[in-house]
Amino acid sequence: MPEKVIIVGSGPAGWTAAIYAARANLEPLVYEGAATEENRVAGTLPLGQLNLTTEVENFPGFPAGDLSGFLKSALDEGNHWLVDLHQQEGCSGPELMHLMRKQATNFGTRVVTDDIAEVDFSGGPFRLTAAGGDQIEAHAVILATGARANYLGLESEEKYKNNGVSACAVCDGALPRFREKPLVVVGGGDSAVEEADYLSKFASTVYMVHRREELRASKIMAQRAINNPKIEILWNTQVAEVLGNDSTGLTGVRLQSSVGEPDRDVEAVGMFLAIGHTPNTRFLEGKVEMTEKQYVKWTVPFRTNTSVDGVFAAGDVADDNYRQAITAAGTGCMSALDAERWLGAQRLH
Ligand code: NAP
């Protein structure tokens, strides 16, 4: 018997879709991704990008406060290690993701810890093949595999991830470690300007490191960076090395000139990457319509439908604009409601 709905992906979009689908008696099956070394290196482990961050201060409903008692009561014993790690006020990314997963399984969501490697959307029921070889059929599919931030690919950058290196200023920028200290933003697009502008509220100085002599950002955004007295744009430069030590984390960056000037070190306590994101859509190539940047295309305004009838998309896999946990959760909810209505109209539910 085909599944009613399969959800591929396990970030806020996937779990919210699962919570809604389970409560609508769709008995959802979630493929949450595989916990492999390959996925770790690529930044595509189960539980998504939030699982790679520290404090989450902007997800409504989790104000500062000691959540350890709540975590202990809400999570299975197997996840009480999160309570032991819980040191900060409020909620961390991993805690939030484990809470969402638990909420979905509480309502009967079944979970398989594997990647979907191949899909056949040529006719219903759809056929999906997992990396481990499982073949599953489903009447409806919700794609929620998210996106991953691009990094420079330096070994030293990897070493200081979550210890000064971040790809999300909105998530991490307000942390106490970054306050009133110099920070580096890498990139010259709208995101880099937005991040630099945001960080300038907390930092003493924000160095924008851009590899060319002209920003890619739109004129109005570029002007915002140029006009901001706390932002210093370092033109024609690239980060060659992230500097730091085990006790303090990141302490600066080594900059290489792209026009032949000598290398120089800049002191900073944080480096924020804003050099674009890559959606996790390789397994969907040629199967569903995508945008130029390989994001899944939403084909109906204010709905989560894709170009394939019965296949829906939620979260960052289809959104290169907002990219927030709360917006992913929002479209996750929408996708489950869209799938439920679609299944009802087909008399499959
Ligand atoms: P983007 O426009 O693709 O810009 C990426 C930037 O990173 C570019 O400046 C690029 O340099 C640089 N870069 C890429 N790879 C690099 C590398 N390996 N080393 C050093 N630098 C590297 O990406 P985005 O800024 O994330 O924007 C994505 C889309 O969202 C855009 O369409 C943007 O307009 C939109 N957006 C809009 C707003 C807004 O309107 N408020 C805010 C954020 C994003 P080069 O310039 O040399 O290629």
What can you tell me about this protein's structure?
The chain is an alpha/beta fold and 349 residues long. The chain has two domains: 3-149 and 277-345, FAD/NAD(P)-binding domain, CATH 3.50.50.60; 155-273, 3-Layer(bba) Sandwich (FAD/NAD(P)-binding domain). It is built from ten helices and 19 strands. Strands 1, 2, 5, 6, 7, 8 and 19 form a seven-stranded mixed β-sheet that branches. Strands 10-17-11-12-13 form a five-stranded parallel β-sheet, covered by helices on one side. The longest helix has 21 residues, at 325-345. The two termini are 13 Å apart. 45% of the residues are buried. The structure holds NADP nicotinamide-adenine-dinucleotide phosphate.
Comma- or semicolon-separated keywords:
349 residues, alpha/beta, FAD/NAD(P)-binding domain, 2 domains, seven-stranded mixed beta sheet, five-stranded parallel beta sheet, 10 helices, 19 strands, binds NADP nicotinamide-adenine-dinucleotide phosphate
Short description:
The protein is α/β, with parallel strands linked by helices.
CATH class of the largest domain: Alpha Beta
Unreliably modeled segments: none
- Overall geometry comes to globular
Q: What is the percent of helical residues?
A: 25-40%
Count of helical regions:
10
Kindly report the name of the CATH homologous superfamily of the largest domain: FAD/NAD(P)-binding domain
- For the record, the CATH architecture of the largest domain stands as 3-Layer(bba) Sandwich
CATH names the topology of the largest domain as: FAD/NAD(P)-binding domain
The proportion of strand residues reads 15-25%
Please tell me the overall pLDDT: 94
Ligands bound here? NADP nicotinamide-adenine-dinucleotide phosphate
Distance between the amino and carboxyl termini: 13 Å
Structural class label: alpha/beta
